[in-house]
């Protein structure tokens, strides 16, 4: 697999995760007959926030993975960052839902760690 193909795997998985989180919001809206806002539903408010959080972090990471692939970054690093970020996003979503708080916390640590390492790898690839 090329670096671009490896990055594309994690891009695809994280896009599917975003769609799944959006579907959770829409299904709760439909169930509660709520077209705007959260209608006072704590469950819907939580689903909106989980999707929103993923939407805030995912685009930057996916663009970074793509850039690293175009710069011919090592495939193992793309895998490690893709796995770490994806596991972090899934853990965070579960932890923000009905899962244990530790999953939310672990999810953010994995997300931020992957993003920081990716940023450093990009800078290294550009300036070395």
Number of helices: 4
Largest sheet: none
Radius of gyration: 16 Å
CATH superfamily: Membrane associated eicosanoid/glutathione metabolism-like domain
Number of domains: 1
Shape, please?
elongated
Overall pLDDT, averaged?
Answer: 95
Rounded to the nearest angstrom, the distance between the terminal CA atoms is 24 Å
- CATH architecture, by name, is Up-down Bundle
Structural class: mainly alpha
What pattern of helices and strands is seen along the backbone? HHHH
Instruction: Indicate the CATH topology.
Output: Four Helix Bundle (Hemerythrin (Met), subunit A)
| Content of β-strand | under 5%
Number of strands: 0
CATH top level? Answer: Mainly Alpha
State the share of residues found in helices, binned by percent.
over 70%
Observed structural traits:
4 helices, 128 residues, mainly alpha, Four Helix Bundle (Hemerythrin (Met), subunit A)
Summarize this entry quickly.
The protein has 128 residues and is an all-alpha fold. The protein has helices at 3-32, 42-70, 75-96, 101-127.
Describe the protein.
The structure is a single chain. With 128 residues, the protein is mostly helical. The chain has a single domain, classed as Four Helix Bundle (Hemerythrin (Met), subunit A) (Up-down Bundle), CATH 1.20.120.550. It is built from 4 helices and no strands. Helix 1 packs parallel to helix 3, helix 2 (42-70) runs antiparallel to helix 3 and helix 2 (42-70) runs parallel beside helix 4. The relative contact order is 0.15.
